[in-house]
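Data card: per-record layout.
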Amino acid sequence: MGFLTLKGDARRPRLREKSAFIQEAGSNLGTATYITVPRGQTVKLGIAKEGTIVQIGQTVYTFQTEQHQIEVALGENEQIMFNPLL
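The structure for this 86-residue chain is written out next.
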């Protein structure tokens, strides 16, 4: 596993990397994209469509609404936290 930079759409059912920047994850048709990275790593997303699933370590989050320009990371107590991408 290494660092993944994807400039385009991530519609593959499962992406498993060390750390990732994905320009667009998910689909308008509701097909889930599952992105997995190890604990201590982050996932940066230009667009996360509804239904996109991010797993960091053992913690899983499913996007209920479309989100733009965010970084997903683990905070204290293994909780998912979101930071804006600059």
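Known properties of this structure: Strands lie at 3-10, 14-16, 19-25, 34-37, 43-48, 53-56, 59-62, 67-74, 80-84. The two ends are 26 Å apart (CA to CA).

See the next section for split statistics.
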